Amino acid sequence: MTPFAIAGVQMYVNALQPNVDGMLHRLEILMARFPWTQMVMFSELSPFGPLDKYALPHENDVIDRFCEAARRYKIWLIPGSMFLTSSVDGRIYNTSLVINPDGDVIRRYAKMFPFLPYEAGIAAGTEFCVFDVPEVGRFGLSICYDMWFPETTRELTSQGVEVLLHPVLTGTTDRDAELAIARATAAQFQCYVFDVNGLGAGGVGKSLVVDPTSLVLHQSAGQEDMFPIEVDLSMVRRQRETGMKGLGQVLKSFRDRAVDFSVYDRASTTNDYLRTLGPLEIPQQGSRAGLHVDVPADAEAEERNHTRNLGYGTTPFEGRTTVG
């Protein structure tokens, strides 16, 4: 076993002022309390919150501060993510950094699936993030909504990723569904999952660490939390060889599959149904898109006759439709 200690930081995120000083302050506390920690990850958009009006240039002083912190504490640091404006195309990307213990940015990852239609104006990244921690193992990074698309984790684990680092900003009612997806992802892809959420403008908390058997190693509640967890990547390798609990060998089964999935062929007609679902847009008040629930004329007449027989009159049912 090569032990490796990864800490998540679940902290309050302010939307209208920077949180960078607060992040560095919590990092100082974490390293004083748990000096054996080797990697630290914050939640999605924790440095400046969820508003893209605070987007920064591709290179900026804040990144330099995070690099100095990683070098000072000799840790791998993933400081959540930030909205960064590309120096190439001028578009804004939700970007996470991987900083090594020498203080060097070794990877930049742009979120592949912005939370559309709500994150309109944020460009989608197209490159996966995989990196090796020497003498430990292979790590991959995805951001929040990315994990709802198992293809993203499939790509990472097919490249040998053993730990999925997953900063999120979820302050919505679907957090419990997201937790279920995190556990399923760990089991499906036989990997550790570190799912770190924020508080306040940064989310509702409930950060999660799951091992490759889908066992929850830690789950935060709704308060600030620092949670260093020591992982054993030999467990990942053993499970991928012999199956989860000696049972399903899912990565090898996928490798040896007899089927090619035509849904991934954009020229295929397999996904014609998806084209019937309408545009990707925010629902409006009273929206009935996709609901074919208008009461037929003969049904309305029958309902009016029934109402008259009961002595209620007809006015409340004139021209009525139902919504299920």
Question: How does the SSE layout of this entry go?
Answer:
Layout: E1 3-10, E2 12-13, H1 20-33, E3 39-42, E4 56-57, H2 61-73, E5 76-78, E6 82-85, E7 92-99, E8 105-110, E9 122-123, E10 129-133, E11 137-141, H3 150-158, E12 163-167, H4 175-189, E13 192-196, E14 199-200, E15 208-210, E16 216-219, E17 225-232, H5 233-242, H6 250-255, H7 297-310
Parallel strand pairs: 1-3, 2-14, 3-5, 4-6, 7-9, 11-12, 12-13
Antiparallel strand pairs: 1-17, 6-7, 7-8, 10-11, 13-15, 15-16
Helix pairs in contact: 1-2
In short:
By secondary structure, this protein is an alpha/beta fold. Helix content is 25%, strand content 23%.
Low-confidence stretches: 312-324
Largest sheet entry: 6 strands, mixed
- Fraction of residues in helices? 25-40%
Our measurement of the CA-to-CA distance between the termini, rounded to an integer number of angstroms, reads 57 Å
Question: What number is the mean pLDDT?
Answer: 91
- Look at the helices and sheets and give the structural class: alpha/beta
Describe this structure in words.
The protein is α/β, with parallel strands linked by helices and 324 residues long. 25% of the residues lie in helices and 23% in strands. The protein contains 7 helices and 17 strands. It has helices spanning 20-33, 61-73, 150-158, 175-189, 233-242, 250-255, 297-310; strands at residues 3-10, 12-13, 39-42, 56-57, 76-78, 82-85, 92-99, 105-110, 122-123, 129-133, 137-141, 163-167, 192-196, 199-200, 208-210, 216-219, 225-232. The strands form 4 sheets. A 6-stranded mixed beta sheet has the order 10-11-12-13-15-16, with helices on one face. A hairpin with a 5-residue loop joins strand 15 (208-210) and strand 16 (216-219). Helix 1 (20-33) packs parallel to helix 2 (61-73). The radius of gyration is 24 Å and the shape is globular. Residues 312-324 have low confidence and may be disordered.
